[in-house]
Amino acid sequence: MRSSNPVFSRRGFSRDNGYAGFNTAPQAGYAQGNPYAQNPYAQNPYAQPDAQYGAPPQAPATTDRMTMDDVVVRSALTLGTVAVGAVLAWALLPVSGTSYGLAVGAALIAFVLAMVQSFKRTPSPALILGYAAFEGVFLGVFSEMFNSRWSGAPFQAVLGTMAVSGATLLVYKAGWIRVTARYARIGIAIAIAFMVVMAINLLLVAFGVAEDGGLRSFGPLGALVGIIAILLGAFFLTLDFKQIEDGIAYGAPRNESWLAAFGLTMTLVWIYVEMLRLVAIFSSND
Q1: Spatial contact of 237 and 263, defined as CB atoms under 8 Å apart
Q2: Among 11, 169, 202, 210, which lies 20 to 30 A Cα-Cα from 19?
Q3: Strand ranges for 75-181 from DSSP E
Q4: The Cα angle at residue 139 between residues 136 and 142, in degrees rounded to 5
């Protein structure tokens, strides 16, 4: 199954010869009738039994398999690139028509790089870091624009993004949310419907049919839409967490940790942008 976040096209780990995402590892004590009970390796493409002894192969002395440390380091590098790009854009591009144009251009380049990576067969650190850099430029100008009108909004949005991410991780690790294939399908269907509605709303606003942003207005309706968008961001995070967890458990190649960093970065950017708008809406109503 494909992994999911706002792009809807980022594929799972090891697309050609391994982990594909959202499989559940076999566990001891399954009830009778489980089709995997007699073959505990059926769902794990990296755990093939030894041909001679029928036992799992010994772990190699040196491994090139993905670990949590790999994911943390590459995620920190990718998010750090976003942060550096944002800080430089904030400092060097004062709010003006020119900076808006540069921000839109940076956003388009980031989108293209993200799409290219999404359809590549292997992760490309250059593409992922390039995406992060241009996304950072966009976020820097975007954040400065909001800060010029709602002072402190970006800082509050950062805190809100951290709170949502931390709460989602806590809920996920506590087992209060079980990320299954059915959970993923339902959530993705809702997310696609949301994106379609937002696209239609954008067209209506562009042609003057809907006023003041339509569903994305800075009023109660816009706040409701923003909350829904943030909840969808939290949903994407649970899928990312599950994919990372399973990728490590099933021995995905180490370079796949770049895909984990890529997905987490896109999801966190999504949450931050929506949180920034939500903070602005609430500040406007004070």
Answers
A1: no
A2: 169
A3: none
A4: 150
Integer Cα distance of 107 and 89 in angstroms: 13
CA separation for the pair 38, 130 (Å, rounded): 46
Whole-model pTM?
A: 0.80
- Using alpha carbons, select from 218, 86, 105 the residue that is nearest to residue 144: 86
Q: For residues 107 and 78, what is the distance between their CA atoms, to the nearest angstrom?
A: 16
What is the C-alpha separation between 187 and 216, in angstroms, rounded? 21
Give the pLDDT confidence of 167-186 residue by residue, as tens digits. 999 999 999 999 999 999 99
Q: What is the pLDDT of residues 71-88, one digit of tens each?
A: 999 999 999 999 999 999
Cβ 158 vs Cβ 272: under 8 Å:
yes
The pLDDT tens digits for 192-218 are 999 999 999 999 988 888 777 888 888
Q: Which of 188, 276, 273 is nearest to 232 (CA)?
A: 188
Q: Which of 105, 147, 110, 150 lies closest to 265, judged by CA?
A: 110
Inter-CA distances, 286 with 37, 178, 219, 277, 279, Å: 59, 38, 12, 15, 11
What is the amino acid identity at position 204? L
| Residue 217 in tokens | 């207005």
Specify the DSSP element, H or E, that contains 12.
none
Contacts of 14 (CB under 8 A, 6+ apart): 20, 45, 247, 252, 253, 256
Q: Which amino acid is at 248?
A: I
